[in-house]
Amino acid sequence: MKDFNWPKIIVDDRAIFSGLIGDLFPGIPDESKIDLELQAQVRKITKDEGLQPEDGFVLKVVQTAEILVVRHSMFIIGNPGCAKSTIWKTLAKTMTSIGHETVYDIIDPKAVTADELYGCMNPKTKEWKDGVLSVMMRNMNKNIAPYKASQKYKWVILDGDVDPEWIESLNTVMDDNKVLTLVSQERIPMTPEMRLVLEISNLKNATPATVSRGGVLYVNDSDIGCRPYFDSWLMKYKKIEKGLPENVFTLAYTQYLSDSFTDDLRHKSHITPTCDMACMQSLTTIIDQLDYQLHSSKEQYDHLKKLREENNEEAIKIIYEGFFVFAGMWAYGASLDEDKIQFSNSWKSLSSKQFKYEGDQQVFEYYFDPILAQFVNWKQRVAHFNVDFEGLFSNLVVPTAETTRQAVLLDMHVASKKGMLYVGAAGTGKTTIIKDYFSTLDKEKTIYAGINFNSYTDSKAMQVVVESQVDKRSGVIFGPPLGKVLIYFMDDLNMPYLDKYGTQSPICLVR
Q: DSSP character for 496?
């Protein structure tokens, strides 16, 4: 009873559940039965993948394996960034490594219509057109390439929002019938090797009929957390500067990103919903780019070289701590709304031992200069206005401290091939800043394409625009012209029509 229910209970209710078990079976120890061999293999694969074999993560992988033994369909539920995808991917690799070859196919069911998912009949010609899921399941059932009879497990991964419009059609697949029945009267049974895994953030739109048909693994935010991601990222800094950056970042994490600080941040007013993992990824992205600039800019690298020759470890430590402070202020403070001033004051007080901020402006008004080893106002970096500009008046941009810092942060994310979201009211200059940034890029190496969303944009229209910018390379691989980087600029991302369950199909396709 405990082993079966424990994975789906939220942290707050675990004490109550343990109490109930204790009351029902007094004096009987409720020790879990653990597959030690599987656990050891999971740890090995996790390490091989460059991840942290943390107890909470390993437990979730083992629990997933246990559920898939007794249930042919399961839900992995948890907030964004809590490692849901990593859990089942690690399990697939673990199973393959012990001789049970595991393959999987992923689809976001909300990125296509129900007809595109299951297939539909043309009302005029009575011709049947297959859907994505029906093709996937038929290929698995009949071992059509890339599937083979020798494969021990074949998983269909449905990664997206659940709503009754598409999931009710899967009820016969998820119950003991294990059959997908299509409108064309075709019946596709699930073979013993096949499993259905639904990866979702919540079940608020699912009916009891659906929920009762699958096993449930709930990943709490505190089960794994952001620290393993941070530790995995730190590994690449171990060999640099005799482990200096690694030590600095570890101490800075403890000093600046304490549990009380991050808990307090969750209750502040944000301009857009955000999650801890997204903040952590922004932090590491910005630090990586600052470190890259430190080693690629001649002026900065000469300064670093000089400090190394003088064995001035303290000065090098201050540079890396400055990187952490700068990255942290943007990663954790950029999405705040009314609470920016409060965040700015607390961030200043946290870093006041090491750094001084001239003037009484918010921390966002400063950037870190590694040569001076201090925070300097962005006004120092504003480029001179080009008086001889001869282009269209609408393309004329007067550089300010705001446009400069936005362009610098945008450049960092573009260089590391990470997406960036600009949020703000109409007319605040979001499009202008982005287009002005694109005009500065090297046209030989970079091309960019604009996608303008409106209330009629659906996933099909979005796909057509995306495909119009890429060439077919081979088979199902598409890409920009060789040697070039393609950047998509999606304007008015919030515009597509919301369906009655609050999802937008083009955004599901982007995801």
A: S
